[in-house]
Amino acid sequence: MPQPFRLGFLTHLEGKGSPHQIYQDGLKLITTADQLGFDVFWIAQHHFTGHVGRMPSPFPFLAAAAERTKQIRLGTSIVVLPLETPLRVAEDAAVVDTLSGGRLELGVGSGSDPAEYEAFGGAGDQRHQLTTSGLETIKRALRGETLGEKGQQFFPPAPTLLNRLWQSGLSQVGAQYVARNEAGLLLAKAAWGPDEATDKLQLPVAETYLETWSSSTIQPRIGLSRASIWRRTKRAPWPK
Fold it and tell me: What pTM, to 2 d.p., does this model score?
């Protein structure tokens, strides 16, 4: 049976004005999208750099959105997992999923801004490994496995969220990690290539993801993000 096609939108909450006004405008946008029948809303997480995005903490925002909407799915694209405590991410996600009636789409990734890692004291050179291990912690919690020697149990339970996990991947190697982690593949709105079009550059990534997928209980899924206007910003490269 073919997988359903869902139409949604992604926002970085860029805008002018006070943070209060920007967030209120964002909530109005989600409410309107819900009323118009959009399937999913995605929000990006950014720290410090307001010109790129203005939402460092997506879960409280999505909790507010959950109370204002009825049907639209609420997604993170993405939470920079190595800068977070994975079990706390799972808890925050489970609360939002409970409030929304099972509408959360939890997207995580390794991030790409060295300045964020420097400020948080994170190990940027280990970000991919930390993302994989952090996602496994989230999955163990959602499966209801014991979390400590005293038999600690995850709360609130959100076992169906296992079927709504996503991970960003920009390369064929990254796509293999995502498939092995049994998560949906989130492709960026643009690919950083010299000449070729984004669609052509990302096709091998998507194909590698589908070829690597082996789960018989969860279906593979791919999220594509496209922008009408792309403004490239300069970022410091990762040290070699």
Answer: 0.91
